[in-house]
DNA sequence: TGGTTCACG
DNA sequence: GACGTACGTGAACCAG
């Protein structure tokens, strides 16, 4: 006799996670997990054929709800996340699948699958038979002996698809024989099931102890003999926890099962049960395969009518039911997932098959294809990286994997004559080509797919093409994986195992790098068309993944619709007054020169003031000053805080250096550099926003960075006066007041903070008043300052060290402040603990709108890295939720302004601030609208439990408007 | 190219 | 008891 017990629940979850979100073609019902489940079950029966074929067979499921273990320990499996939305409807379907395979589907209220498995395994063993448990769950390893083995069917790269687990494998895993596994687990616990164990004891130590003492009770009785202080105390202190843990992991062989062993006798597959089920699920390839196996014609069977009834639709999922049969050697779900990828990978990137479109007739064929397909991947090639300055050189298109073309439009001949050469042969007239493409690119029924499509939108907008609607593989990857390397080359490698032609292979590097128009058309075509081809392939893979990962809403509401908004902001640019900057440069140059002379005199020698190394040598070497600290590379630290200290101690050189750094920073980074960014065509400065580079969901700005224009010092603010409105217009600056603290009050649900915001109180004064028991009226500004630093610290994941540094107090004192704060606002501490737990459990934290912020290495043993991840995961939901809110405001803003006929243009975003330009006489109308949109930006998706407040003002320049 | 510093939220 | 710290960016400059 041979009994096979399948751990059904683990089959389902594995199938679900290994597969893209397949849906039933007719109505979109999610069936990916069901499909994988069927494949795995079928594959298993095939694998077990031969001698010793199973005589008894059952699939065991967990019954949702609690078991006796929850009464023992209320935290048992308490942190398990809810099953994904699109998996829930598949649970009952897998039960149906099991019955369709003519196998008993067993589950029982109040009992876990593991106990039922244990019970049947014991009974069969006692009856003298053999048992195979199909699962990789280590909790079942305690059952293994010479009669009972486990079978892990998951295919891992480089390992055989089947892995038998016998006593030897258990010893390898736990360091003890199977009968001692529960003793080890009692000590080391199990984070997956939230079994506590003894803190500080892992699997290695546990095995060591059990091998020495035999079992848990003996160990506890003789715990005082343990030499290691910490270990001994932890064991003595947590003895009860270990006893509970042992009860939690010990499987129960006496579950009152409803069916006895005889009921598990294996029944043959029956076509009349199985085929109607598979047909109802619309699994065509499995149906075909099984019909072949059973030697029946699937057309003789009707789909199960009840199961064929309508299900939920998930848009965007791709259908592979007509795909090729899974490659042999892989288990079900892997094979199926591979099938999708293979369909795409198998079509080669044959560079010589890409078409070069040189005339209208050829282009017309492509346009027809695009219209028929309904979508097209597009990539523009230009003379540079700045899409407000570069010129169009060519366009590539792809309509399906492997089918791509390049339309050369602006290639020039040679670069040896001083006029840059004439137009190269064999190209369409640019204007004619764009006129032909415009209707397609603007057609609301045709989706345009790009990688960083904002760039291409910016280019095409200058040729009077407003590209819409769009999808962006860069943003999809960002929604899925966060601010990782989301560049096309990396994505091609990751998802397609494909290495793209590098731009530098084509154009060279350094100052001799060719611009794209100088590259020979045939070579350009191979490179460019590949980009469109790869983009299209990535899209087919990434789009369904959004659903599976639960980030569709984030992508669709926060990422995708922002792109056209940003493209327009970038195109508008902002007016910058050259004269003002030039005057300031002169002023700063003079002051820097004077400070430089003073510094040489004080130092007694000339040196490079900009070199931290030389400065460190002078201060701490030559001048022999005490109290210098080293940076991690061993160099003297000469940062502002160090120089501040020295200045306070009466070192005049330190003060001089600080002043010099101040003016030279302003000069080099701003007043000297900004004029170089004024676009010759528009006369304005066009920053570029990176929408997918910040981990938390913020934007970043570059070339130039207009999100770090000075404001904190008087000199710095002068630079803002150079950002001006066009003649007849004004700039309007609208910024959220304390948005991150408000978000914190909402997320952490802190009544005192929420009330204070509701009543419009000074939040830092309120905090100070609560903490230090002083009235808000007539408060000492220093007291308020401390509270303010703490409020900021909280947002950053406070540490005593950081707060002490910020306030210039001792670490002990800072620690006391934090204690007081936590005592006064206990909800904050709960919030922080929760984020720390979440990041460890799932590898990411989330904003209130569902954006996921992933972290690498969440289980690192490095204490500082760990602390860093904890602080960042406390900060990320706060910073990220605020970022989501302003994104929503930006997405909605243009529509509201145009509906109300208010001509105000959004120009810039600085994290919690939006800058607009409007005719001077329209500002009074614009301001209340802008405030309304920004203050209501969370709704209707979310009703914040604190009000948002926006302050807005209009003026001639940014300094006055802010 | 990596390290340091400093501008912003 | 170590570990080295406030969160998130981009740009300029130095030094190798």
UniProtKB/TrEMBL annotation:
Keywords: DNA damage, DNA repair, DNA replication, DNA-binding, DNA-directed DNA polymerase, Exonuclease, Hydrolase, Nuclease, Nucleotidyltransferase, Transferase. Residues 716-922 form the DNA-directed DNA polymerase family A palm domain. Its EC number is 2.7.7.7. Transmembrane segments: none annotated. Residues 1-267 form the 5'-3' exonuclease domain. Residues 354-547 form the 3'-5' exonuclease domain. The keyword DNA damage applies. It holds the Pfam family DNA_pol_A. One of its GO terms (biological process) is DNA-templated DNA replication. It catalyses: DNA(n) + a 2'-deoxyribonucleoside 5'-triphosphate = DNA(n+1) + diphosphate. It is an enzyme of class 2 (transferase). GO terms for molecular function: 3'-5' exonuclease activity; 5'-3' exonuclease activity; DNA binding; DNA-directed DNA polymerase activity. The keyword GTP-binding does not apply. InterPro entries: 3'-5'_exonuclease_dom, 5-3_exonucl_a-hlix_arch_N, 5-3_exonuclease, 5-3_exonuclease_C_sf, DNA-dir_DNA_pol_A_CS, DNA-dir_DNA_pol_A_palm_dom, DNA/RNA_pol_sf, DNA_polI_H3TH. PANTHER family: DNA POLYMERASE I, DNA POLYMERASE NU. NCBIfam families: pola, PRK05755.1. Belongs to the DNA polymerase type-A family. In addition to polymerase activity, this DNA polymerase exhibits 3'-5' and 5'-3' exonuclease activity. Single-chain monomer with multiple functions. This is DNA polymerase I. It comes from Pelagibacterium luteolum. The lineage of its organism: Bacteria, Pseudomonadati, Pseudomonadota, Alphaproteobacteria, Hyphomicrobiales.
């Amino acid at each position: 006799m041979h009994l096979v017990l399948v751990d059904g629940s683990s089959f389902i979850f594995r199938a679900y996670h290994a597969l893209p979100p397949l849906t039933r073609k007719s109505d979109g019902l999610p069936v990916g997990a069901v499909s994988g489940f069927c494949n795995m079950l079928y594959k298993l029966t095939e694998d077990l054929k031969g001698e010793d074929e199973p005589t008894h067979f059952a699939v065991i499921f967990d019954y949702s709800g609690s078991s006796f273990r929850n009464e023992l320990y209320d935290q048992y499996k308490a942190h398990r996340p809810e099953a994904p939305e699109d998996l829930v409807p598949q649970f009952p379907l897998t039960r149906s699948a099991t019955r369709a395979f003519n196998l008993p589907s067993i589950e029982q209220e109040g009992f876990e699958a593991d106990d039922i498995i244990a019970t049947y395994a014991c009974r069969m063993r006692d009856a003298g038979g053999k048992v195979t448990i199909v699962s990789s769950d280590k909790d079942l390893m305690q059952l293994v002996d010479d009669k009972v083995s486990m079978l892990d069917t998951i295919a891992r790269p480089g390992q055989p698809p089947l892995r038998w687990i016998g006593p030897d494998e258990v010893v390898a895993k736990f360091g003890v024989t199977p009968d001692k596994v529960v003793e080890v687990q009692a000590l080391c616990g199990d984070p997956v099931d939230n079994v506590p164990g003894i803190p500080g004891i892992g699997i290695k130590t546990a095995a060591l102890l059990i091998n020495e003492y035999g079992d848990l009770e003996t160990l506890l009785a003789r715990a005082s003999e343990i030499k290691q202080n910490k270990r001994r105390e932890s064991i003595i202190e947590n003895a009860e926890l270990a006893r509970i843990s042992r009860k939690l992991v010990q499987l129960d062989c006496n579950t009152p099962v409803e069916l006895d062993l005889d009921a598990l006798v294996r029944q043959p597959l029956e076509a009349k049960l199985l085929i109607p089920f598979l047909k109802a699920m619309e699994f065509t390839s499995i149906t075909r395969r099984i019909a072949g196996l059973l030697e029946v014609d699937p057309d003789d069977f009707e789909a199960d009518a009840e199961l064929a009834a309508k299900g939920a639709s998930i848009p965007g999922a791709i259908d592979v039911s007509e795909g090729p049969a899974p490659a042999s050697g892989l288990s079900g779900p892997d094979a199926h997932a591979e099938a999708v990828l293979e369909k795409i990978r198998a079509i080669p990137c044959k560079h010589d098959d890409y078409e070069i479109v040189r005339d209208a007739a050829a282009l017309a064929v492509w346009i027809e294809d695009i219209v028929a397909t309904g979508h097209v991947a597009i990539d523009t090639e230009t003379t540079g990286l700045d899409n407000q300055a570069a010129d169009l050189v060519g366009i590539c298109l792809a309509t399906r994997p492997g089918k791509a073309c390049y339309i050369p439009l602006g290639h020039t001949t040679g670069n040896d004559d001083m006029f840059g050469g004439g137009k190269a042969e064999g190209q369409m007239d640019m204007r004619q080509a764009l006129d032909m493409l415009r209707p397609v690119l603007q057609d609301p029924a045709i989706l345009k797919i790009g990688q960083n499509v904002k760039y291409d939108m910016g280019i095409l907008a200058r040729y009077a093409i407003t590209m819409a609607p769009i999808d962006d593989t860069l943003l999809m990857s960002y929604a899925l994986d966060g601010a990782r390397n989301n560049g096309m080359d990396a994505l091609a490698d990751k998802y397609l195992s494909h290495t793209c032609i590098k731009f530098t292979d084509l154009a060279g590097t350094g100052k001799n790098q060719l611009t794209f128009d100088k590259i020979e058309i045939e070579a350009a075509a191979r490179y460019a068309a590949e980009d469109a081809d790869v983009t299209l392939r990535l899209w087919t893979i990434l789009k369904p993944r959004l659903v599976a990962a639960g980030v569709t809403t984030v992508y669709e509401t926060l990422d995708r619709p922002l792109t056209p908004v940003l493209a327009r902001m970038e195109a508008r640019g902002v007016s910058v007054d050259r004269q003002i900057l030039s005057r300031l440069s002169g002023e700063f140059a003079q002051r820097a020169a004077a400070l430089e002379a003073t510094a040489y005199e004080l130092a007694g020698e000339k040196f490079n003031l900009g070199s931290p190394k030389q400065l460190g040598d002078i201060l701490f070497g030559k001048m022999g000053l005490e109290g210098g600290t080293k940076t991690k590379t061993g160099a003297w630290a000469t940062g502002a805080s160090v120089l501040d200290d020295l200045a306070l101690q009466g070192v005049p050189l330190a003060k001089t250096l600080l002043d010099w750094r101040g003016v030279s920073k302003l000069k080099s980074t701003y007043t000297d550099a900004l004029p170089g960014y004024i676009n010759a065509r528009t006369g304005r400065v066009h920053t570029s926003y990176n929408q997918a580079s910040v981990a938390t969901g913020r934007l970043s700005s570059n070339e130039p960075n207009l999100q770090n224009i000075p404001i904190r010092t008087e000199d710095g603010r002068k630079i803002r006066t150079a950002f001006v409105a066009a003649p007849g217009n004004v700039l309007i600056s609208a910024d959220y007041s304390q948005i991150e603290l408000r978000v914190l009050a909402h997320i952490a649900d802190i009544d005192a903070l929420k009330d204070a915001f509701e009543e419009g109180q000074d939040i830092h004064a309120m905090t100070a008043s609560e903490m230090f028991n002083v009235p808000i009226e007539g408060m000492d500004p220093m007291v308020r300052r401390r509270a303010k630093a703490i409020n900021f610290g909280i947002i950053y994941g406070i540490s005593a060290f950081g707060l002490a540094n910020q306030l210039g107090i001792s670490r002990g004192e800072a620690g006391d402040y934090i204690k007081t704060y936590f005592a006064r606002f206990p909800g904050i501490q709960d919030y922080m603990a929760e984020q720390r737990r979440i990041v460890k459990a799932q590898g990411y934290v989330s904003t209130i709108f569902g954006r996921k912020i992933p972290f690498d290495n969440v289980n690192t043993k490095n204490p500082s890295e760990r602390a860093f991840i904890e602080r960042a995961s406390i900060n990320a939901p706060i910073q990220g939720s605020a970022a989501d809110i302003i994104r929503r405001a930006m997405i909605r803003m243009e529509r509201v302004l145009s509906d109300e006929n208010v001509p105000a243009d959004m120009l810039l975003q600085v994290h919690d601030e939006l800058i607009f330009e409007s005719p001077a006489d329209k500002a009074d109308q614009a301001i209340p609208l802008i405030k309304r949109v920004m203050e209501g930006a969370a709704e209707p998706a979310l009703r914040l439990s604190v009000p948002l407040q926006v302050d807005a003002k209009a003026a001639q320049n940014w300094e006055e408007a802010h």
